[in-house]
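Q: May I have one protein plus its fold?
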Amino acid sequence: MMPAMTKQWSCLLALLILLMPALAFAEAAARVVFVTGSPTVTVPGVPARPLVRGSELQAGDTINTLDGQVQLRFADGASMSLKPGSNFRIDAFRFVDRGNRASSGDGVVMTLIKGAMRTITGLLGKEDYNQYRVGTSVATIGVRGTEYGAVFDGTGLAVTTYAGRVEVCSDAGCQQIGPGETVWVYERNQRPQFEPRSGALSGAAVQPDLPQAPTVVNVPVSGGSPTTTTADPMSASRSPITSPSGK
């Protein structure tokens, strides 16, 4: 079982944020392996640039998918899909591969500003949940080696787990969710709950509108060309989201 937010995590978050300017010039955090439409990426103080297949992303980059879909491959092996209309930021990233294990001091901090994402996590967070966080304005998401999706709009956050364990924390408390379960958070001062609020999340309370699972492909983050596939990575077939029963 993953404990709630700890001093350990707070220290890691502070360290990563302090290191962010230096890390921005280090090895790329992620690489774009699939894209449709006309998404863009921005860095504070720099005009937006087109986000294309093969683009490298670093700490501080914000993705705006606009009318398109984007799939990312992170340096620690994670894959992520973002739906149209999503804004997503990589706040801080550090990963040193030590024989297919994350190193002490590694970590990733990301923010889902709005929209929908689905991810298969990599080595970060697999053994130490303090190494991984995705934040929103109402709650944060932590994992221990998992596959999950999240939808965040003007009415709240919905998080669904497909494999592994996810912990969703607001200021009022934390809730762990296992495979096939979904929790909703509507305000930072309210505890995450299994039952959706009527009419919330654009009317998609029972089945949040998540992307299909990203395709896991062997793509180098720095250098080389992405592996080509015959299937559209955004159309991988997975089980539909269902509201948990008996909660």
In short: Confidence is low (pLDDT under 50) at residues 1-12, 14-25, 216-247. The longest helix spans residues 7-23.
